[in-house]
Amino acid sequence: MALLVIPLVTDGALALARPINSGTDQCRVLHVVDGDTADIWCAATGFERARLVGFDAPELFSPKCASEIIAAQQAKWALCAALFGNADLRLQRGKLDHYDRCLVTIWVGPDLLAKQMIADGLVRGYDGGLRQGWCG
Length: 136
Known about the structure:
Elements lengths: L10 H6 L1 E5 L2 E10 L2 E6 L3 E7 L1 E3 L9 H19 L4 E8 L5 E7 L2 E2 H7 L4 E3 L10
Parallel strand pairs: 4-7
Antiparallel strand pairs: 1-2, 2-3, 3-4, 5-9, 6-7, 7-8
Protein backbone atom coordinates (compact mmCIF):
# COMPACT_ATOMS: atom_id res chain seq x y z
CA MET A 1 0.00 0.00 0.00
CA ALA A 2 1.37 3.42 -1.02
CA LEU A 3 1.27 6.36 1.32
CA LEU A 4 0.13 9.64 -0.21
CA VAL A 5 1.56 12.72 1.45
CA ILE A 6 -0.11 16.04 0.66
CA PRO A 7 1.78 19.09 1.88
CA LEU A 8 -0.36 21.81 3.41
CA VAL A 9 0.37 25.49 2.99
CA THR A 10 0.65 26.97 6.45
CA ASP A 11 1.11 30.51 7.66
CA GLY A 12 4.81 29.74 8.13
CA ALA A 13 5.16 28.68 4.49
CA LEU A 14 3.37 31.82 3.36
CA ALA A 15 5.80 33.92 5.36
CA LEU A 16 8.64 32.43 3.29
CA ALA A 17 6.87 33.06 -0.03
CA ARG A 18 7.63 36.24 -2.02
CA PRO A 19 5.19 39.05 -1.09
CA ILE A 20 3.66 40.87 -4.05
CA ASN A 21 1.65 44.09 -4.00
CA SER A 22 -1.78 43.82 -5.57
CA GLY A 23 -3.42 46.98 -4.39
CA THR A 24 -5.74 46.27 -1.47
CA ASP A 25 -5.18 42.47 -1.45
CA GLN A 26 -2.16 40.75 0.03
CA CYS A 27 -0.65 38.18 -2.36
CA ARG A 28 2.42 35.95 -2.37
CA VAL A 29 4.21 34.01 -5.09
CA LEU A 30 4.51 30.42 -3.86
CA HIS A 31 6.00 28.51 -6.78
CA VAL A 32 7.08 29.00 -10.38
CA VAL A 33 5.57 26.26 -12.54
CA ASP A 34 7.20 27.16 -15.86
CA GLY A 35 8.31 30.23 -17.79
CA ASP A 36 4.87 31.88 -17.84
CA THR A 37 2.93 30.24 -15.00
CA ALA A 38 3.20 30.56 -11.21
CA ASP A 39 1.22 29.51 -8.17
CA ILE A 40 0.11 32.43 -6.04
CA TRP A 41 -1.86 32.88 -2.84
CA CYS A 42 -3.96 35.97 -2.19
CA ALA A 43 -5.77 36.70 1.05
CA ALA A 44 -9.03 37.48 -0.76
CA THR A 45 -9.05 34.53 -3.19
CA GLY A 46 -6.74 31.88 -1.73
CA PHE A 47 -4.53 29.63 -3.85
CA GLU A 48 -4.55 30.23 -7.62
CA ARG A 49 -2.56 29.12 -10.60
CA ALA A 50 -1.61 32.31 -12.46
CA ARG A 51 -0.92 32.57 -16.20
CA LEU A 52 1.32 35.59 -16.60
CA VAL A 53 0.11 37.73 -19.48
CA GLY A 54 2.01 39.50 -22.24
CA PHE A 55 4.37 36.69 -23.12
CA ASP A 56 4.59 33.02 -24.04
CA ALA A 57 7.38 30.74 -22.83
CA PRO A 58 8.60 27.46 -24.36
CA GLU A 59 6.72 24.40 -23.14
CA LEU A 60 8.33 22.63 -20.19
CA PHE A 61 5.82 19.81 -19.81
CA SER A 62 5.09 18.98 -23.46
CA PRO A 63 8.17 20.05 -25.43
CA LYS A 64 8.31 19.19 -29.13
CA CYS A 65 12.13 19.00 -29.33
CA ALA A 66 15.24 18.99 -27.14
CA SER A 67 15.98 22.67 -27.76
CA GLU A 68 12.50 23.60 -26.52
CA ILE A 69 12.99 21.87 -23.16
CA ILE A 70 16.35 23.62 -22.70
CA ALA A 71 14.76 26.98 -23.55
CA ALA A 72 11.84 26.19 -21.22
CA GLN A 73 14.20 25.54 -18.31
CA GLN A 74 16.02 28.82 -19.00
CA ALA A 75 12.72 30.73 -19.08
CA LYS A 76 11.57 29.10 -15.82
CA TRP A 77 14.81 30.00 -14.02
CA ALA A 78 14.65 33.56 -15.34
CA LEU A 79 11.08 33.88 -14.06
CA CYS A 80 12.20 32.52 -10.67
CA ALA A 81 14.97 35.13 -10.54
CA ALA A 82 12.55 37.91 -11.48
CA LEU A 83 9.86 36.93 -8.97
CA PHE A 84 12.02 35.87 -6.04
CA GLY A 85 14.94 38.26 -6.63
CA ASN A 86 13.02 41.55 -6.69
CA ALA A 87 11.37 43.24 -3.76
CA ASP A 88 9.28 45.70 -5.79
CA LEU A 89 6.64 43.49 -7.43
CA ARG A 90 3.08 44.52 -8.29
CA LEU A 91 0.31 42.30 -9.56
CA GLN A 92 -3.01 42.84 -11.30
CA ARG A 93 -5.40 39.91 -11.45
CA GLY A 94 -7.66 39.46 -14.46
CA LYS A 95 -10.24 36.92 -15.58
CA LEU A 96 -9.72 33.15 -15.83
CA ASP A 97 -8.39 31.51 -18.98
CA HIS A 98 -9.76 28.29 -20.51
CA TYR A 99 -7.54 26.23 -18.13
CA ASP A 100 -9.06 28.07 -15.10
CA ARG A 101 -5.81 29.93 -14.46
CA CYS A 102 -6.08 33.53 -13.34
CA LEU A 103 -4.63 35.88 -15.97
CA VAL A 104 -2.12 38.04 -14.11
CA THR A 105 -0.04 41.05 -15.12
CA ILE A 106 3.13 41.63 -13.08
CA TRP A 107 5.35 44.70 -12.85
CA VAL A 108 8.92 44.63 -11.57
CA GLY A 109 9.45 48.17 -10.35
CA PRO A 110 7.99 50.45 -13.04
CA ASP A 111 8.39 47.91 -15.88
CA LEU A 112 6.18 45.09 -17.06
CA LEU A 113 7.67 41.68 -16.32
CA ALA A 114 6.66 40.63 -19.86
CA LYS A 115 8.81 43.40 -21.34
CA GLN A 116 11.82 42.26 -19.29
CA MET A 117 11.39 38.57 -20.21
CA ILE A 118 10.97 39.42 -23.92
CA ALA A 119 14.01 41.74 -23.89
CA ASP A 120 16.08 38.92 -22.36
CA GLY A 121 15.15 36.74 -25.36
CA LEU A 122 13.66 33.96 -23.24
CA VAL A 123 10.03 34.32 -24.31
CA ARG A 124 7.89 35.82 -27.09
CA GLY A 125 5.32 38.54 -26.88
CA TYR A 126 1.82 37.05 -26.75
CA ASP A 127 -1.65 38.54 -26.50
CA GLY A 128 -3.77 35.45 -27.09
CA GLY A 129 -4.59 33.44 -30.16
CA LEU A 130 -2.48 30.88 -31.99
CA ARG A 131 0.96 30.34 -30.50
CA GLN A 132 4.07 29.68 -32.56
CA GLY A 133 6.20 26.58 -32.04
CA TRP A 134 9.66 26.69 -30.45
CA CYS A 135 11.40 24.07 -32.61
CA GLY A 136 12.91 24.41 -35.99
